[in-house]
C-alpha cells in the first residue's frame, strides 16, 4: 500500500524519522565522492539528460555523454534538466529540476502526495503505457540476462511474450495494508515510508488500497491516540505500537486487524478493541502480534486473538481460503484469478497428471491445480503456511492434495523414492528466484512440463537460462499486472522438455 499524507492545521506533512535518518541519497554524507576520474559528471552539477528507458523501480534512465543517471519521475522520450546527487563508476542518481521535453504518455498523478510517498512509482505514466513498458521490461530481461530469443524481436523466432494482462479499473485493488506507526509533530502517526527513506508519511487515503482498509487503519490510529498508546520509536527501540496490519475479504466482507507491538502488554486493551469495533462495524477479528526484535521485519513469532475469530475467509474462483494474521494471500484477488488460471492453462492438465507445487505457501495454486490433476503434492519450508494449506484443502473438500514441510529440493527426491514422479512441476518462488539446488532437482526429475510463476523478471530470466541449458524450452510468457502504478510485474511461463 502506498503512503498518503496527512497534514496538521498548518498544512505540514507529518513524518517520523527512523534509525537511519531520512535515508535520502546524499552528495556529501556516507563517503559519497563528489567526482570520479573518467565520469563526465560531478555531484551538484546541473546536467541535461535524454531519458531512454525506465528501471525496474520506475526511475528514468538518463544518458549524459554515455554515462547513466537514474532520474526519479522522468519518462522515456523526455529531456530533463537534473542535479546530480550521487555518482559511481557505472551510474549515478540525479534529481529532476526542470522538464524540457515532455512524453506523450505523461499524466498528472491523482494522488496528492505521490511525489513524496514511496508506494507507487508510475502514477505519472498513462496506464496503457505502463502495461507496454512492463512487457518490454520482461523482454529486455529475457534477452539480456536469459540470453533467450524472443519472438518478434529483430524479426526472429523464440519464446512468445504476450501483452500484459491489465485491469479495467487499476485503482483500489489492494486487500491488505501494512502500516508502520511512528511519531510526528502531533504524536502518533501511521502511513508509509517516503521514497528512499525511513521517514513515515502520515496517510489517511490511498488510491490503490481498498477503502475498507483505509477506514480500519484510521479507526485504529484514532483509538490509539485517544487511549495514549505509545508509538514505536525505531531510533531508540522504545514505544509499543509498531505496525497496524489490516485485511479486507472481498467476497465475505470480513475484516481483520493485527496490532504488531513491541511487547506483550497493551494498556487499555479491552477499551482499544471496543473502540475499533465501535468505529468499524463488521470487524471479525482483532489480533496482536508481538515483535520485540530490532528488525525491519513486520511480524514476530507470537500471535494471539484479542477478540473474535483467528481467521477471516475469502474466495478466489470458487475456492475458499482461511486467512490468518500471518498468512500469505495475494493482495489483488481480481488479478490473482487471472494469474492462476494462466498457470493451470500452461500446466495442460488432463486429469491424469501428478503435479508438484514447489513454494506452495498456503496452497492457493495447489488447490487451483487439484481441480484438473490426478494428484497434487505441495511443499513449503514454512510450517505455518503448510498448516494453512491443509486447512484450506479441508475447507474446500479437496482430497487429492498432500502437503509437506521442507525445502522442495529435499522433499521432492524423497517423494520420487516413494514412487511419486511428477508430470508437471509448478514453482512460484520469492523475488530471489529458485534455489539453485531446486533447479538441479527439477532437471534430475525431468517432468514433461514446468510452470514458472515469477514476481521478478531478472531472476526469472536467470532461471530460464539454467532450465534451457538443462534440456527445457520456454514456450510462452504471460505477464500479469498484479500491482498497477508500481514498477512490479508478475509472469507465468509455460516450459516444456525439448524431447516431448
From TrEMBL:
A biological-process GO annotation: methylation
Signal peptide annotation: none
Positions with biased composition (Basic and acidic residues): 1-11
CDD domains: AdoMet_MTases (cd02440)
Residues annotated for S-adenosyl-L-methionine binding in this entry: 330, 359, 380, 428
Domain of life: Bacteria
Ranges for domain TRAM: 40-98
Pfam families reported in the protein's UniProt record: TRAM (PF01938), tRNA_U5-meth_tr (PF05958)
Chain spans, region Disordered: 1-31
UniProt-listed InterPro entries: MeTrfase_TrmA_AS (IPR030390), MeTrfase_TrmA_CS (IPR030391), NA-bd_OB-fold (IPR012340), SAM-dependent_MTases_sf (IPR029063), TRAM_dom (IPR002792), U5_MeTrfase_fam (IPR010280)
Keyword Plastid applies: no
Active site: 455
Family: Belongs to the class I-like SAM-binding methyltransferase superfamily. RNA M5U methyltransferase family.
Record-given protein name: 23S rRNA (Uracil(1939)-C(5))-methyltransferase RlmD
Organism: Cohnella silvisoli
The organism's taxonomic lineage, starting at the top: Bacteria, Bacillati, Bacillota, Bacilli, Bacillales
Gene from which the chain derives: rlmD
